[in-house]
Design goal:
Elements lengths: L1 H22 L3 H14 L6 H11 L7 H13 L27 H11 L7 H25 L5
Length: 152
């Protein structure tokens, strides 16, 4: 009896989540929802809807570092072709990431995760990894210093 109740509740929740994913039209919100489902470990329930959503946002150009890196990571994780050139707009003429990105914590974290999906010939993703590590470590050190914690 109790199992039937849980089973019914689970199916209702899955239908609500499925409806959320299929009704969301904003590309950034779709990506965030897919990312949340993956992090929660429930994405396997919605593989078809996730595939459809990623097909919809495949050619959308994202504006900020966070959503560009999120789109890149999700597309690569799900086997969709995407070029590392999507990060070119965040680089200067020398192929280095712009210093103005160094305080964007969510963007840096997203870039760091995305950089792990590079292939051997994608040196720009190695640069992305080094850039994000450098600035995340710097921000963490500043936070630690400003927090008042003392090293032991």
């Amino acid at each position: 009896m109790q199992y039937e109740l849980y089973g019914t509740t689970l199916e209702e929740l899955k239908q609500k989540a499925r409806g959320l994913l299929t009704s969301e039209k904003e590309p950034c919100a779709q990506l965030k929802l897919i990312d949340s489902m993956q992090r929660l470990g429930v994405a396997y329930h919605f593989e078809e809807e996730i595939r459809d959503s990623l097909n919809q946002v495949r050619d959308v150009v994202m504006g900020d570092l966070y959503t560009t890196a999120l789109q890149f990571r999700l597309m690569r994780e799900h086997g969709h072709p995407i070029c590392s050139g999507v990060f070119d707009k965040f680089q200067d003429g020398n192929g280095r990431f712009m210093d103005s990105l160094s305080k964007d914590v969510t963007g840096l974290l997203s870039l760091y995760e995305a950089s792990h999906l590079g292939m051997n010939s994608e040196d720009d993703l190695e640069e992305a990894k080094n850039f994000s590590i450098k600035h995340l470590m710097s921000l963490a050190g500043k936070w630690w210093k400003d927090s008042g914690f003392k090293k032991t």
